[in-house]
Input
Amino acid sequence: MTLYFGVALVAAAVVLFVLQPVVKGVHASLERADDELTETEARKRVALLALRDVEYDFLSGKLDEQDYRSLKGELTAEALAALEADEASKAGGGVNEILEAEIIKLREGFNSGATCHSCSYMNVEGSLFCSACGFVLTEPVAR
Amino acid sequence: MTILGEFALWISLPVAAFGMVLGYAGGRTQRGDLVLSAERTIYAVFGLLLVASVGVTAAFLGDRFEYWYVANYSNANLEVFYKVTGLWAGQRGSLLFWALLLALFAVITVMTNQKKNREFMPYVAGVLQTILLFFIVVLLFADVNPFERLAFTPADGRGLNPQLQNYWMTIHPPTLYLGFTAFTIPFAFAVAALLNGRLDARWIQLTRRWILTSWLFLSVGIVFGMRWAYEELGWGGYWFWDPVENASLLPWLTATAFLHSIQIQENRGMLKVWNMSLVLLTFLLTIFATFLTRSGLIESVHSFAQELKIAYIFLGFMGAVLAASVVLILYRLPQLRSENQIESFLSRESAFLFNNLLLLGAAFSVMWGTMFPLISEGFTGQEISVGPPFFERVNFPIGLLLLTLVGIGPVIAWRRATKRNLQKNFTLPVTVGAATGMVLFGLGARHELPLVTWSISAFVLTVIVTEFWKGTRARARIEGEGHVLAFFHLITRNRRRWGGYIVHVGFVLMCIGFAGAGYNTDSRFNVEPGDVVSLASPFGHQYDLTYEGLSMSIGRGERNLLWQAIATVSVSQDGTPKGILTTEKRQYTNRDTQPMTEVGIRSIVSEDLYLILSAMNDTGGALRNDPGAQGIDLQVLIKPLVNWIWIGCLFITLGTVIALWPSVDRVRLAREKAEGSSELAAAGAH
Amino acid sequence: MKKNGRFMVGLVGVAAVVTYLIWTGVSETMVYYMTPVELIDKVSEDPTFHDVGVKVGGMVIPGTYSRVEGELLHVFTVRDLVDESSTFVVEYRDALPDTFTDNIEVVIEGRLRSDGVFEANTLLTKCGSRYEASPEELLGTGQ
Output
């Protein structure tokens, strides 16, 4: 008899535990958390990480200069796009200083005139023609 | 306690069903109270399954032989350790154990996600409860209830098969089950992503740790099984392409493919449909593994029972999951479009894709080889048998190609690799690989497969070591650190990558070990006490083995041992005495079979010396301690490089742990620091 | 699109290689599985079958086991599981598995020689069905 009583007690406890939120109207949050990575932030992270990896690969000798500049140009363009998309999606939240600084730094590198607009190859400063595809390099864009 | 456990199992049925409905309903209606309720059912089901499991264990400890399961896997004299672990000794208890582990992981998932990933959690809870419900239904309705009672109470149980009374065999099932059940979590998140539409890489990022952990347990669990077979089955082999072994290999292969292909999705936004399909396939294969092992569909060295009802329930469930998931994937197809394309044949993406194709090809061939005999019998009526020759023939070439890719992947560039990139980075490794092959050939290695394996291994190890070296040197230069510190920081600053390389080293070491089997030697001698046998190992070690004699030990029925015949052999290696090895025959009381053999193993880095007491010339005489009846058949095996398999597994574990280790989120820290200081500045300005 | 075309080639290539390996693998390594009755019938129909490797499942007849002293040679008689009159002698030149005993089901691989003796290369005992006892068997336990 005590067994059945015990079992009934356990069953009742479980039912109460499980149904309490519905009965009492307690809600679990279903909203995205504030500090959660949004899609644009995730992309930005990936883009910046890829840039960092390229730097390291070049410095450790895995990439030669030509490949490095070529890749770096492409990745910088992507990173810029990702940063700007992220900034736009955060537009409501006020200016993020670090983000701004990152964008400025990248833009400087990108628009110093050395990046070919045709094939994204990052040429040496002062070049007139792109070493990779021969495209005429434009004048440095005033910011 | 046991009866309480039985009731607990019954109570868990409606709770799981209720939780399943609430989870999906809460997600659909976005009602937080339903979701909270669903999450609570997960805690409840875990508690109930825990009570049920404790109930089964209590039955073992209390020698309650009226329970069918206890009567078949225990007896009064069994060591307490094996009574405690009796929960997973056989089919019924294993299913309960599986459900318990799954519920535990479900609880961990719910607890760690109380404040995050809230968009996913309702559906995650729903999916997890669906799967738990399945297992509970199987336990209660498929004639596999661990609480089933016999019509009478036997005086004693049948005891546990002596071959299962071994350390490795006790930890092998739980480790594998941890791997199988841990993979359910990524699957649940994948389905949740399909249901809530967040189809970017988020569900992958969230479950990356679960995927790695599951893979680790699967890998280690498989290796534990190999070690058990090596020690216990007495043939010196560790893999037999047994259907049950194959069943555990299948999800490992697809999980490994998945581990690599998710990196492509995270990096380049491609292969979304592929990844969804892979996570589904791997999950189904984990269920299939349980099904194959526990339904008796294929009789093998492992198989435990022959229940058909359970086969239908499993197949039905797998079919339903497959159908539902395919429908969901098709429904979301537009959102699963790739964001980029593969630009070049020669690129890391391409290498990863080939890796995936090869792994899936291997999985397909293993599945085919395992199932074909059954299918063929179903259609033609003619039974055929497909054995190790088939599996080796297909999987050795695939394995070698995979091994080669391990050396190509880390070095080839993303997007597109130029010829210069390849030349620069592959010249040295290819040279080392070829040179190794030539040196080994010169030293007398003539078996092709090991020769090729070792050459490719040298190539891959060169690639990886060079990566570490170049990375350390670059970091030392940039950060101005000493080389040792640079090495340490290199790894800790990018744990995924360098942990992954360590895992690859482990894999290569295991391949080196596998190839050593090409040089196994097997000799048999009939010896009397005092006889010395001499043999040379392929590595040139000279062994002189002196058979000292037999000593008999008559048991008193404790530990179920009737008698033990212990053959003692003194081992001398290259002229130096190295101690003794024993190999035994043991007769157990509860098994009316021939005596079991316990082997003697001496391990050094280069090889194992493996002794087997095959037979005694005169068992009866030996038991009576007749001085004339001490002769034995001694089998001596030499297993070159076998320990590299276990060493490789250690590296795999180390690398995975490094990759899993939480790293400080430096970007977030920097931002918080900046925000904190600007707040302070603002406050200070007042 | 052209790039994807290249991919399909690669994919089809790998799939083709794997399929080829499986196809030849199965056909070259597969072994017919027969009962003693089927094997004896087949061999009398087609004498060349004496040289074909097969796998046979049967049961060891109690009392027929002997070991040849000095050599590693085991001799025993195996019968069909269903038709008890269908038997042949088996010669096996390797170590016996620990579970080998009278009345045990075995799976042997080898060939049936023209002298009626089965030369076995491998021997496995089927102990799957012996792991779990029927209630009747359990009645007999305990001393």
